[in-house]
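Risk register update: the risk of archive-format incompatibility is retired. Evidence:
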Amino acid sequence: MPNCTINDVVCEFEDGQSILAVATANGIEIPYYCWHPGLSVVANCRICLAEVAAPNPRNDGKVETIPKLLPTCQTMAAEGQIVTTQSEKAVANQHSIMELLLINHPVDCPVCDQAGECGLQDYAYQYGNSASRFEEEKIKQPKKDVGPHVLLYSDRCIMCTRCVRFTEEVTGTHELLISGRGATESIDVFPGKPLDNPLSGNVVDLCPVGALLDKDFLFAQRVWYLKSTPSIDGLTASGDNILIEHNMDKVYRLKPRTNMDINRWWMTDEVRYGWHFVNDETRQLMPSLRNSEPFEQDAPDEAWDVAEAAALDGLQDAGHIAALISPMLSCEDAWHLGQLARAIDPRAVLAVGPVPVDGQDQTMLDGFVIRAEKAPNARGVRRVLESLGGTVLDAAGFHAALREDASIAGVLITGNYPSEWVTPDLIDAISGGRFTVLIDTLPNALKADAFLPGATWMEKAGTFENVEGRLQSFHSAVSPARWCKSEAQIATDLLARLRGETPHTFCDAATRQAMAEHGIVEMTRDVQHPPATDVQADSDMHLIVL
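Archived output:
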């Protein structure tokens, strides 16, 4: 492969790569604002300019320095190039660009949500001047409400135009434009056309400064307190890679995690803003039994003991049972629940819960696909249940089986959907005095004999199989809410009680190994694992206690 030298580091590259792309791939820092690997190259921020020397074919290939600085985002890497951003000329340019960018920028870092993850802050510290020479009055720009999720603080904008290019090249919706000229130039929306596309929240991630801010996260938390746990989209069948950002066991926001094979750099608004049911005030947090007084909240262990005993006794007394396993659950949840059902009744009917579908798949201009299927693991749950033997039904088949087979006297049902999911068909199917155990997170219309509160995907570890058959594991970001447990842990505890064994803590890796030994070899062979959990950026600022 050809190679070039960037800041004294020899780098291999492929034809067609820019100098900046090569530097980024090799961990060499070159400052930039307007460049993004998923967008077109405009080279308008000019802070990435570098001195470039290259072999001159007109002078017997002698390496000669090109007189003017070149934008590394737009200049293609070439064999034998010597690039430096550390020369006197390049450094002077960096200082000049930062001085120009900060001329009209307000000094509102203390109240800006972007503080702590702001490219302007970082580069002002690394490449800026200690004092401003600008003495005139700053140009004021208004704050604009540009859409249902995004606010635009025009004062802070540095006109990198990433957001405009995103709506032109990725979504194809063209809501944003560049208005005005010169120092009064600003980003705006077309009249009567708010920023309201299915990927609109991505412009907040793209903005390198605090100009575009997320209404949902506004003034909610300082970013340096947040930890980022890698996870998977738990609301749709896409399998998009995400980061769950949280502090002190509370989730504050979701951000996309780059995976070029699946979602690249983007995520949908329905995932970005659809997680709030995790903190819903109506969430069911304690076990309960029908026709019994609510358990005391100061004795959760006793409540779980009584509720689990009642649930297991009722299913055992039923004799023949059926289990409806939600496609919102992980493969590990499905494995333990399926094993529990078959341990109680070797002839237990197994079925995959209802799979929500909203319209058709939507393909954006750059090829990003928004999935119509709104369940993260329908294929994974089916794969696991089928490995236990017998026919695995869908939700309609489950309803039919209950109506046709009066010997099914007990049902185990799991939900964990982000909204109401119980249908009149399901209520009608389980009627007739069948003992019902429900594991769910939110209240619904189903009247269960025993209710056990489950955990959302953010609160447990496991594996999802997306619409393309890709298996991906995810980590637990926060602890289960109050007294809730993961479905796998509930099933593990019930199975231990059934066998007279001591309960043990659920482990997703051990469960995948057990599934592989059972014959589902994909659970150890094909699962893609995320990076380390709870990544927190190290600060170069020293905290002093006074």
